[in-house]
Amino acid sequence: MKDKALLFINGDHPKSLPDPDQYGLIACTDGAFHYLKQLGFSLDKLDFISGDFDSHSGADEDVYLEKFILTLDQDKTDFHKALEIILERGCFSVDVFGGSGGEQDHFLGNLTVAYAFKDRLRIKFYDEFSEYYFVPKNFKLKHVKNKMISLYPFPSVENITTTGLNWPLTNGNLNITSRIGTRNFAVEDEVSIQYQSGDLLFFVGINEIEYPGIY
């Protein structure tokens, strides 16, 4: 897993922490540093802490100064700058915690940053509700029966066909201004998606839906 990174950014903190031993690189933005400290995460495992440090406070953090990377470019978000560093260090897959929650303009900004990096990095977001990421034009996922599935065009997807969903699509089109595919659910163990053009953001719920018919 040397080419896989773990990145914490400054949204809602995770309810449970992933196993750091599964990653070749571990990093956080300056704002996320505070909640990692409160959650008891082993800060010695951090390879770097990046940002403009507008969220930095607390003298006890000075022990980690050698891991701080100051990134002052105000034309880029802290998330964007952290991804650039991760790429420079030879990682091409990254699991992101703290991408949602808080102020929703941050959440939308994080999705836009992930879109900008989607051809260079395999980025997967995790929060307390779901995992979400951009998927290729031919995609399959197993072990999802009765889980919420949402398809979100970014901004459009053409000729999309799905199997395994309660409301399937056959050569359909999705567009952010007219038709999106949120709040569906899997009726089979495996879901498959094929589409001809565009970009698709895929959400899968962490837990099974107790009464999927109500959706």
What key attributes describe this structure?
alpha/beta, TPK_catalytic_sf, ATP-binding, Rossmann fold, nucleotide-binding, 13-stranded mixed β-sheet, 215 residues, Jelly Rolls, kinase activity
Outline:
The chain has 215 residues and is an alpha/beta fold. The chain has three helices and 13 strands, in the order ββαββαβαββββββββ. The model has no long low-confidence stretch (mean pLDDT 91).
Note down, in words, how this protein is organized.
The protein has 215 residues and is of the alpha/beta class. The protein folds into 2 domains: 4-128, Rossmann fold (3-Layer(aba) Sandwich), CATH 3.40.50; 134-208, Sandwich (Jelly Rolls). The protein is 16% helix and 37% strand. It contains 3 helices and 13 strands. Strands 1, 2, 3, 4, 5, 6, 7, 8, 9, 10, 11, 12 and 13 form a 13-stranded mixed beta sheet that branches. Helix 3 links the parallel strand 5 and strand 6. It starts with a strand and ends in a 7-residue tail after the last strand. The model has no long low-confidence stretch (mean pLDDT 91).
- Low-pLDDT sequence parts: none
How does the overall form come out from the CA principal axes? elongated
Count of the domains: 2
The CATH superfamily label of the largest domain reads: Thiamin pyrophosphokinase, catalytic domain
CATH fold-type name of the largest domain: Rossmann fold
Keywords: ATP-binding, Kinase, Nucleotide-binding, Transferase
Protein name: Thiamine diphosphokinase
Organism: Chryseobacterium elymi
InterPro entries: Thi_PPkinase, Thiamin_PyroPKinase_B1-bd, TPK, TPK_B1-bd_sf, TPK_catalytic, TPK_catalytic_sf
